Amino acid sequence: MSRPGTVLVVDGANVVGSRPDGWWKDRPGAARRLHERLLVADTTYDEIVLVLEGAAKAGVRAGRDAHVRTVHAPRDGDSTIVAEVRAAAGRGSRVTLVSADRMLRARSGAELAMSPSWLLDQL
Q: Which listed site, 12, 21, 32, 45, has its alpha carbon 20 to 30 Å from 67?
């Protein structure tokens, strides 16, 4: 997305890990289910950026599907999340980060930070 708008950056590992539904048995499957829910979600965001790391990356290919862009973290997810938030803000977008990680929320510089339960309630 090259124009300013509203961007929701999702810490995939944090959201998937927020509910004990057996996700640890199938991390790729859990990432795929979250991606599918984001694709059909009725949100006000122009773009949703789903950041995946580790084994979860095998569940969703990197790239854009409609308004959802999946990013595979090359190393740790936190650094990729911070980079995505800052890039979107640098384009003039209003950025909301979804993560329960308070340190990450503070470090990212996102305009607004919401919890995984907030997002899951929207889906």
A: 21
Give whole-number Cα distances, 47 to 18, 23, 81, in Å.
Answer: 22, 25, 14
Tokens of 100: 């329960």
Per the domain annotation, does 41 fall within a domain? yes
Query: DSSP state, 21?
Result: S
Residue 87 is part of a domain; what is its CATH number? 3.40.50.1010
Closest CA to 73 of 64, 89, 59, 62: 62
Q: Which domain holds residue 25?
A: 6-122
pLDDT at 9 over 70: yes
pTM of the model: 0.93
Alpha carbon separation from 20 to 17, 56, 105 (Å, rounded): 7, 16, 22
